[in-house]
Write a structure and sequence with these properties.
Chain lengths: 390, 339
Amino acid sequence: MKATCWHGKRDMRVDDVPDPKILNRRDAIVRVTSTAICGSDLHLYNGFIPTMMKGDILGHEFMGEVVETGPDVRNLHVGDRVVVPFPIACGACLACEAQMFSLCENSNPNAWIAENLMGHPPAGVFGYSHMMGGFAGGQAEYVRVPFADVGPLKVPDGMPDEKVLFLSDIFPTGYMAAEMCGIKPGDTIAIWGCGPVGQFAIASAKMLGAERIIAIDRFAERLAMAADKAGATDTIDYQAQDVLDALKDMTGGVGPDACIDAVGTEAHAPGVLYAYDRFKQALMLESDRPLVLRQAIMACRNGGTVSVVGVYGGFIDKFPMGSFMNRSLTMKTGQCHVHRYMKPLLARIENGDIDPSFVVTHRMKLDEAAEGYAMFSKKQDDCVKVVLTP
Amino acid sequence: MQTLATRATARTQSPQRRTFEASTPTVARANRPDRDVTTVGVDATRLARALGWFSLSLGIAEVLAPRFVARLAGVRHVRPGLVRLCGIREIASGMMIFGQGKKPRAAMWSRVAGDAMDIGTLAAVASAGAPGARKGALAFATANVLGVTALDVYCAQALGHDRTDSAPGTSIRMERSVVVNRSPEELYQFWHDFTNFPRFMLHLESVRRTGERTSHWIARGPAGTRVEWDSEITADTANELIAWRSQEGADVDNSGIVAFEPRPGGRGTIVRVEIEYTPPGGAAGALVARLFNASPEQQVYDDLHRMKQLLETGEVTRSDAVPKGLGPVRQHAAQGESR
């Protein structure tokens, strides 16, 4: 079959690889009908995530048709259309029982690598390095889905792929970002990053009752999408304005009630700080560039919440702990516990509260995955979201 | 912290208690009489320090003046990079000796390993008749290295036999714990049936029951070999603790203890395991075992996590990169295996 394989930094190739096989009794094999390139795939593409190997199949946003099931999968049948959550979860451990699916204790056979790096290991994830389990991803014609009796959600007939595909990751991730803000009526929420996750965080903040939603980015087309499609009430172009000044100005000096970091490790910023972090990163003195995180903490109102869904991989520098501690801030974080949100968010799509396909800007064939990665990474042609079809 | 062994002795009834206490000290000690360092007349710690200074100075010379050192050893056309590498190794050995306190046993064995490499290098140069090799100087260098090797082995052994050291270098002991979302009762039942062990302990081929408290174990050894032994339960407290140990005549003396501790709030059970074994061949055997199995601790970690996966999900989790599940297998790319 054809699959999108990582061959090194900025070197993606669509290779001919062996078809996946059932390895566990609770596996299913899914024929992929739609898959997307995630912003977090760009961290792999740009070489910021350790423990990658040549030939690793990428892709954790995908959906398709069940073509084979292991003997212990009874809830799915050949021919079912399913969308698959990106974290792999067993449904039986204490983390799964507590609905913390992205922290499943059994789904990552390489948990020891992550444990050495992070203290405790998170769950396995499709197509996201060996540290996260070494699972082949879904930017392929077929994919093996472990614990298929727990994760995949059956899709109603007649609902087009693009409306439900993003239940695999970015819609629930954006929703969880907004949910972690504990939004109360009248709240002001600021969102750094108007990529796909940022767009869904904005849309979700609106659904959860935020009154003022401030979107921050540097690309005009993304800010326009945030305002016109997702529901942002204000926008800040961080290259044209000083973000902290602008936020103080907009909130009468108080600051937003909650700040969402939907950017993560590869943040950009104008000026000296960016050069400082880029330099330290190049020397491997820090693994992540916490430009947005610092700003979100400094901007947040006293006693407010900083919600982090942008992906970080390792260690950061110059964390403003004094500001964070003295002003009673709360930080909430996490890889999305997708399983928790799929059904309620499917209901919102069916109700017409939201049509997630608004983020799609480019539709390409699986064969063109390498071009898709390059375009998305460079944000060429106003690219926000690439959907690939085999 | 209370060790499992002391808890085992504290909790078990007296007949079992006696059996268990006998198994607690390192198995190796029963087989080999210990010699105190002082009885052989040389202070091993002082000797180790002298060898440590020797390592440091030789290493620094090799790094700073590789060509000069090579010429002294009778080797002219050797790459300075190789000599510098040897130098770095010497410096590391020296630093280890000073870093390991009064009993730098592992550091001394690392010096022995380094000596073996040096002898190998000199032998290779001599047998290849390499250009620029001066026979006389080469023989002199080899004799020197052999002499130092003898000193290193002596020192390492003397340190290893020191009775005051609570953990002689001959046995390997590992402790690990994991939380399993099952009751102590379920876990006790699973562990009490030793025939379950090969399902999660990868190095075991089979365990067969031979009596009420005894079983026969077959394990995979290095290079396709098999090792076998009979094992006996030495402590057994329902839903709390099981201990076992190999009987007389085992290929590899070993013992183990597992304890089950309910977590507060019904949040699963802490399973604590302590395993000890004595590779054949004394201290050198233990060193070889450590060289070939980089981390025995990792092996127990893997075993326990496979056990957790088995009990919580029914199977050992496999991924495309590790199709046999977690363990000492080389990762391959995260894609299907070719048929």
